[in-house]
Amino acid sequence: MAAGNQIRMDDVTILVRKVKEGRLGKVVGFSEIKNEKYVVGMGDLPAGKYVVMVDPGASDYMQGERLIEYPGPGGSKRQNWTISTEQIAIPSLE
Asked: What are the b/e assignments for 50-78, b being 16+ CB within 10 Å?
């Protein structure tokens, strides 16, 4: 990643929101992107549905989101995101 792109990537935040009764709830976790990776500590959050969102902030990147089924404490969901200035962020589960 070029230095100019890294500066713009510094403006991107990953947000995690709880889904309750089919609606987005409050933000329960967030992370910045460092070295093209992010980690959101979900601690003791209960199992259930959550939405992982790319918030582009002041960058030129586009937003995106993915609904996940979180297995609960100790569980993990590995995701690989393609973040672009020309299309919405595209997630895939690894």
From this structure: bebbbbbeebebeebbbebebeeeeeeee
Regarding pTM above 0.85, the answer is: no
Total number of domains in the chain: 1
Instruction: Assess contact for 28 and 44: CB atoms under 8 A.
Output: no
d(CA 73, CA 6): 32
Question: What are the pLDDT digits (tens) for 27-64?
Answer: 998 988 887 778 888 778 899 999 989 888 888 888 88
Question: Comparing C-alpha atoms, which of 59, 57, 55 is closest to residue 89?
Answer: 55
